[in-house]
UniProtKB/TrEMBL annotation:
This is Helix-turn-helix domain-containing protein. Residues 4-45 form the Helix-turn-helix domain. InterPro entries: HTH_58_Actinobacteria-type. It holds the Pfam family HTH_58.
C-alpha cells in the first residue's frame, strides 16, 4: 500500500487527495507517506506571484496614493491591495508617508 501512496503523492496529489483515494484519514495517509520515505512538500499552497494587477497597484502606490486611496479608486479591498503590494516586493510606508524603519 505504501508504494501506491507514494506514487500518488509524487504524481502531484496532496495528502488530503491521497487520503481520499485510499479511503483513509489524512493522518493515516501522512503516516504512510512518511513510512514510505517520501519527502513531504511544504504546506500552505503556492506563494502569491506578482501579476499585472500588482504592478498597476504598485504604480499607484509609488505615485504617493495611500492604500485607502487606492481602495477608493480601484474598488479592490484594502487587504487585497496590501497583500499584492507585498508580493510584488513593494516596501510600504508608515501612516505619515515615511518609509518604515528596519526592525532590528
Amino acid at each position: 500500500m505504501s508504494v501506491d501512496v507514494a506514487a500518488l503523492y509524487e504524481e502531484g496529489f496532496g495528502i488530503r487527495s491521497v487520503a481520499e483515494e485510499i479511503g483513509r484519514s489524512y493522518t493515516t495517509a501522512r503516516r504512510q507517506l512518511l513510512a514510505a520515505g517520501v519527502k513531504l512538500r511544504p504546506s500552505g499552497g503556492r506563494p502569491l506571484q506578482a501579476d499585472p494587477v500588482a504592478d498597476y497597484l504598485a504604480g499607484l502606490y509609488r505615485r504617493g496614493l495611500s492604500l485607502r486611496a487606492i481602495e477608493a479608486r480601484t474598488g479592490y479591498r484594502y487587504w487585497v491591495i496590501r497583500t499584492r503590494l507585498l508580493a510584488a516586493g513593494v516596501e510600504l510606508r508608515d501612516r505619515h508617508g515615511r518609509p518604515r524603519k528596519a526592525v532590528v
